Every structure is written in C-alpha cells, then in structure tokens.
Amino acid sequence: MAVDVLLGLQWGDEGKGKIVDVLTRNYDIIARFQGGPNAGHTLEFDGIKHVLHTIPSGIFHPGAQNVIGNGVVIDPVIFQGEIEKLESFRLNINEVLLISRKAHLILPSHRLLDAASEAAKGKNKIGSTLKGIGPTYMDKTGRNGLRVGDIELDDFQERYDSLLNKHKQILSHYEEYEAYLTKLEELEPAWFAAVERLRGMTLIDSEHMINQSLKAGKSILAEGAQGSLLDIDFGSYPFVTSSTTTCAGSCTGLGIAPNRIQKVYGIFKAYCTRVGSGPFPTELEDETGEALRAKGHEFGATTGRPRRCGWLDLPALKYAIEINGVTDLIMMKSDVLSGFSTIKVCTGYRYKGTVIDYLPYNIENDLVEPIYTELAGWQDDLTGLDNFETAPQALKDYVAFVQEQTGVPITIVSVGPDRNQTIHLAAQNVSA
Ligand code: IMP
User: Fold this and answer.
1) Model pLDDT, residue 44
2) Ligand 1 atom 8: residue of nearest CA
3) How many angstroms separate the CA atoms of 402 and 329, rounded?
C-alpha cells in the first residue's frame, strides 16, 4: 500500500491535528516524521479539547497504530505528561504508540542552550518555542546526539555525561552560566524519571516496521508538524525551525521511499498567521489583524503567544504547493472570515521595481509589497454549515478563486474546531 502525507503549507498552526483526526479512519498507521514538542496539534470532539505535542493525532481512533518516527525529537518529560493526559481514555499505550529507536532525545541542557542562544540574539531572536529543538537537531547533524535506542544501552549514563559536558562548555561562555547550572539540577531528576518510563514503552526499529506494514498492505498517513514556510531549507531562513517540514521530510523521517507517496494533503488557513519572528508580507498590524486574532483565537497552542495575522498569501501558498507536490488542498478556519465586507488575497508582490507572482529569496517586509485582489466577503455564520451546496456564494467564489490560482482542488473546507465541522467537497476538475 501507499503512504499519504499531510502537512501545513504556511507558518504552522494550520489545523493539522484536527484533519489528521478526521482522516484517521482511512488509515491503519499514523506516523509523525519531524519536529517535537514545539508542535501543538489540537483536536476537539465530544466537547473536549486535546493538545498533542509529540504523540501522533491518530491516538484517539480505535484500531490505529501511532508511530513516532526517527525524524522526531522527544523530550521525555513533555512526552510523559502527554501520556498521563491520555490515561482516562484507557488506551493500551504500549500497543497503539510505537517509538522509533532512532528518534533523538532532547536533554535538559538542550533547552538551556536554546534559551541562551535566543537571549544572546537580542532583537534578532528567532522567537523559538524554547523546547530545545534547534540544539537537539544541531547535535543530530553534528553527530553528537543521544537517541531513544541509547537508553537501552549499558553505557547510557556515560553517553549522557559526555554530551552534557560538551553542553556545559558551550554554556560557560554565557554570563548566566551559574543560573543555567542551577536550572539543570532542577530539571534533571524529572528527566531521568521520564527516561525510565520511556524504557518501559514500545521502542521499535520504525523504518523496518513501516516498510513491513506497507508490504502487508497497510495504509499510512504521515503527519507533518509546523509548516512549509518554517522548513529548514525552504522556509524564511533563519526564522525557521530546524527540521524538514516539507514532504521530503516524510521520507527521511520515517524511512519510506519517495515512490511510496501517493496523496499529499496540503493544509492552509483561509488567511495567514505566524508566531515568532521573521518576515510576513501580508501581516496586518491594524484592527483587521486584531479582528482575525480575536475571532480565530490565534494564540499559540504550545506557548500561548499571540499569533501575527494577515491575509492569504497566494505566491507563498503556490511555492509550498510546488515544493510538496500537493494533490489535495484543505482550507481551514473559513468561519473566521465571516463578517468582513471584503476579503483581500495577495496575488503578487511589488519587488525591486517590478511585479512578481512568486516568492523571492528575500521576503523582508520592506522589500516586498503585497498586491491584493479584493473579493466579496460573506456575513453568514458558517459554524453550522454541513453542506457546501448551501454555503454563501461569496465563500464558493473564494474557494473557486484559490483553486483557480493554485491549480489544485480544495477537497475539505473546515468551518470550526470540532471534528463534525468539516465539509468534504467532491474533487473539482481543476487543471494544474
Ligand atoms: P523552534 O522550532 O521552537 O526552534 O522555533 C522556531 C520558529 O518556528 C519560531 O518562530 C516558532 O514560533 C516557530 N514554530 C515552531 N513550532 C511551531 C509550531 O508548531 N507552530 C507554529 N510555529 C512554530
């Protein structure tokens, strides 16, 4: 069988958790392939809201297996906290949640390095979630990292000590070194206790398991985290995360061959948001931006930080569609756009004296000026909509406009956070 990939096309927070949860019934295995506790995937059903950071969003579906792939980085403390929150669901965690031995571990000192590096950057800071993501991936590519499989080895403690010593050397260059050492002492006991619990969980050679499952005819959904514009290569560097958030990351983060990939679901919000620093051409620093933030509850699921809001950026969306080979678009938070008399969509930029319709190397706000097309808004509340036929004409026109501009069909329109507020559209005939 094949692998389908689901990923975010903007700067994260597109609503991947909800859609994975909605699509799970079609798949035997849900697998996370990159990122770590910087992600916050929100699922809502039966009036309860769940936020998952490391655990795949298929966890609530009976029968689905959930794999944390080798491309993921795990903070054992945060991970155990997530598992404890699942206790009331009486899941047999050791059966439904499988963890790659090749996933890397976030150490307490990685978090301190993240904090130290961000503080030193001053006004150029990335706006990291401070979960230790960057330093952990740096140790991975620097060939110093600790992996989940190492906790099964007799010399795990020595390996830990050796890496910690490297980290201490780096931290000693910062003024707050003593404070970091004190913090480390505070964090370590909980970390080792969580590692002990991790040892009792189902640790697997995930690339083998995934490929065997494919041979056995099982279907797999690869769940991305963050968004394409935060990708380490293709995002708005250096204001990005440290992993491959694009489709290629599902191959390296799970050990699947590219020719196994069938559908690529690309999720985008009907507008745009960004949390943390970095360029954002269509950002609205006015009352319209405020209205989007208030109406869309645009505050980070992991950090609670207010998200920056702006209009939909089509050159950026088309770029993400191209890099990922998106076959199906999924439009989220359409309900948030209700109530605007007109809605703007960026279709190009004024850049160095010319007009372009693609994303240039540098998208700093003072270099690119968005060019907007104005579309009619709609006033109707969409949260009870269950059939696209009865949708307001202006919403239908908005969907048609995005499809026509991108050349990719929109197959799902989401009109609220609950599983049930999801409208499946018949695949439209859109020429690429
Ligand atoms: P880091 O991945 O924590 O190092 O953060 C790097 C950048 O990516 C920061 O601007 C974060 O705000 C952003 N970021 C990381 N994870 C997410 C996410 O899941 N959603 C949205 N933004 C994220």
Assistant:
1) 84
2) 241
3) 10
Q: Is the pTM of this model over 0.85?
A: yes
Q: Which DSSP string do the residues of 159-171 spell out, in sequence order?
A: HHHHHHHHHHHHH
Q: How far is CA 329 from CA 147, 284, 415, in A?
A: 35, 24, 15
The alpha-helical segments, DSSP class H, found in 28-174 are 76-85, 93-96, 108-121, 133-141, 156-171
Closest CA to 283 of 384, 365, 350: 365
Cross-strand pairs, 104: 73, 147
> Does residue 41 have an active-site annotation?
yes
Alpha helical stretches, state H, 296-414 = 314-324, 393-406
**Cβ < 6 Å from ligand 1: which residues?**
11-13, 38-40, 126-129, 131, 133-134, 225-226, 230, 239, 241, 275-276
Phi, psi of 8 (to 5 degrees): -85, 140
State the first-to-last Cα distance of the chain, in angstroms, to the nearest integer.
26
Cross-strand pairs, 350: 355, 369
CA 286 to CA 364: how far, in whole Å? 19
Q: Is 329 helix (H, G, I), strand (E, B) or coil?
A: strand
Residue nearest to atom 20 of ligand 1 (CA): 12
pLDDT of residue 89: 87
Question: Cβ–Cβ contacts within 10 Å for residue 157, how many?
Answer: 10
Tell me the C-alpha distance between 351 and 368, whole Å: 5
Assess whether 13 carries a catalytic annotation.
Answer: yes
With contact defined as beta carbons under 8 Å apart, do 152 and 199 qualify?
A: yes
| Helical ranges in 122-205 per DSSP H | 133-141, 156-171, 177-199
Query: In which residue ranges of the chain is pLDDT below 70?
Result: 427-432
